Every structure is written in structure tokens, then in C-alpha cells.
Amino acid sequence: MGSESGVPILDFRKSTEITLEEGGQGWKEMSKKVRVALESHGMFLLRCDEIPKELQNKMFTDIKSLFDLPEETKTKSIGKRAYRGYSSKNPTLPNSQTFGIDDTFDPNEARSFTNLMWPEGNPNFCSQARELSSCILKMIMEGFGLLENYISEIKELCRGNDTRLTKYPLPKETNDSVITFVPHTDKSNLTIISQNEVQGLQLLQKSGNWVNLNVPPNGFAVMVGDILQAWSNGRFKAPIHRVAIRGNKDRYVFILFSFPREETFIKVPSELVDEDHPLRYKTFTYEDFINFIKTVGTKLGALDDFAGI
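-> C-alpha cells emitted (309 positions)
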């Protein structure tokens, strides 16, 4: 089933006839669908009940309360790296407020943030989102027939997990859409996006037109990042996307980025190189790539500039 943008919608819900038990026939069939979706669009939309609707709704109630804190409280959150901590005046994210949380699943880092800003936190939602990310990466490996050979690499690809919480306020002075996140690709290997009922994601199609992505209610958008594009030898392409807000409500978003540790080497598996798919990317470390990104910002095509052959 597809969305209005042509992006496939995959259904992981237990209420379907397909049983997604790892290693089972249904799981293998869904793995093929995941691969096809990512090869054709670099992303898919997901219906999933692994994360209950009630938990997701509570998450956005908590996010709203977080952004409702006084500005002097929010500015106490200071990140160690780019796009971390609290920001409301970032040119990359105009007309928005955002919290970037380092090392979401490091107990010390998470405790530091929640004690400072968000005493109740929401560890269940974060943990289940991480499990969903790991499951999708396994399906990607299965889709290529590489799961047994690269099970340890899955762990390395998603060793790091950062969270971004964002508020996109509704436009106050115009009825037109307001761009609140400039066109970009993600620097992760995989990105999982959950939002409240307000839409805003837009995808740049090959035709050069921007189309709206309508994420299913209580669903997710799953996107390939630059790292997974490189690892897949370009078989997956990170989609160029932006955020444009229009409507009568604020948009709140939870984003989980999975990525390798800085010292991890990103290397194309030999199984993904053949006559039809010559090697497109040299081996590199995630740290070197991120250092390069710091010099070029959100420049489109940065991965090919950095590691393309």
C-alpha cells in the first residue's frame, strides 16, 4: 500500500495476518518489502503497535510540557556537540525550538537531562523506539541475505542513539506554509520519526517537486541516512526532506537517530559490489565524516563529496 507521495506504507501491526517473529517466513517477507521500499524511496511509512498508542500520546503530552517550561530553564540544556542541547535560533531549524539529547541510552546522560528538564522522562518510549530501529536494521540485512554474516555489524551501526525533541510553532502571521527545517539528508544510518497529529514532512522527488508526507496516525516515518547510503553502496539513497508547517496547531516531533561510534569504519560489504553495482564509496570512519560535515553544514551531496569514488 502506498501513500499520496508514493512512499510505501508497511504494516508491522500484530492485528495483520503476517507474523513478524524474527526468522519466520512472515518476517523474511517483510524484510524484502523493507529492502524494496528503501531501494525505491530511501524511506517508508510505518504502522506499528509495538509502541502502544497510549504511550505515544503520553510522550507528546510530556514533550509539550517540556517546551512549556520557562526559557531560562530550557537554555540550561547545553550540548557537547552540534545540534545538541536547547536551541531556538538555529538557522538550520528556523521558526522552531529543539532539544538534542546526547547518548539517549547512556544512563548518566539521560539522568542528567531528565533531572534538569524533564523529571518524569519517558524511558519506555525511547527504549521501544530503539528496539524498533534495531529490528529494521536486521530486516535490512535479511533483505540482502546478509543477516548471519553481519549480525555484529548491526550492533556497530546502531551503537549510538541520539534523540531530538522539536516544537514547530504554528505560523502566526501567514496562512502559507512556513519552512521550519531547510532541505537536508540525515547524517545517521537510520532515522525514526514520530509526530503528533500535525503533518509537516515534505520529500523532494526526482522531478524536483516537493510532496507532502502524510505519516499515519500513531505511525512513524523511517528514513535512510547518509551512513546507511554509504554502507549499502548507494543501493539506498538518503531522501532529501524538509519541514513546512501550515495549520492551526503546533507540531511536536520525537526523532531517534541511530549511528555508529566515532571510531567505527563504514565499509561497503563485498556482497553488495558487482558488475551492476560497482563500488561507490571508500571506507571511512564516522568521526572523519562528521568532522567533514562540520565544515559544509547541510550542503546536499556532502557524502559523495567526502567519500564518493
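The chain has a mean pLDDT of 84.
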